[in-house]
Amino acid sequence: MKKRVICAALASFLLLTGCAGPASSVVEMTEAPTEAATEAETEAATEAEVPELPGYTLLWNDEFNGDALDETIWNYEPHEPGWTNEELQEYTTSTDNVFLRDGNLVIKAIKSEKDGKDYYTSGKVTAQNKKDFTYGKVTARAKVPAGQGLWPAIWMMPKDEGYYGQ
């Protein structure tokens, strides 16, 4: 009994100290960039090449060198605002939101107005049911914007949606 009380007290202490914030809880907010990346920024982002990794065999890649997203290996995933996580944006299939430029996939959030209110569109692409593998190493390069309310993400999701509850 005494061991349980000590373990419970220790666990509570660890939980509470883990919840404590840093000494300074000031969060610096930044404005979302309003201008497109400069050509120099875009060029710097395209310099990377497909890495050769000893002991691994390349199974799948896309260097985004075409004129449009290759729909034989990618899916557009359109959704209405709020479909999950109460997100504000509508995911579209519009080439204003998802396009290729200089060997990069660009997913662009756009702020507009609808019914007198701010309205946001963006894009979402997946490789679901197009490519899956059990083991291996995944390498990706991404340049993501900073800004309040932005949540750029690259997710590795299982093929079966039952594993993550979508």
What does the model show?
The protein is of the alpha+beta class. It has a domain at 66-145. Helices cover 16% and strands 17% of the residues. It has 2 helices and 7 strands, in the order ααβββββββ. The chain has helices spanning 2-19, 39-46, and strands spanning 75-76, 89-92, 98-101, 104-107, 110-114, 117-123, 125-126. It has a 3-stranded mixed beta sheet, with no helix packed on it. A two-stranded antiparallel ribbon has the order 1-7. The chain has a two-stranded antiparallel ribbon with strand order 3-4. The longest helix has 18 residues, at 2-19. 5% of the residues are buried. Mean pLDDT is 75; it is low at 1-46.
Tell me how many strands there are.
7
Quaternary structure type: single chain
Structural class: alpha+beta
Q: End-to-end span in angstroms?
A: 43 Å
**Widest sheet: strand ordering:** 2-6-5
* Mean pLDDT across all amino acids: 75
Q: Characterize the main sheet.
A: 3 strands, mixed
Unreliable residue stretches:
1-46
Q: Give the proportion of residues in helices.
A: 10-25%
Radius of gyration: 21 Å
Strand content: 15-25%
User: Helix-strand pattern, N to C?
Assistant: HHEEEEEEE
User: Helical region count?
Assistant: 2
General shape: globular
Q: Outline of this structure?
A:
With 166 residues, this protein is α+β, with helices and mostly antiparallel strands. It contains 2 helices and 7 strands; from the N terminus they run ααβββββββ.
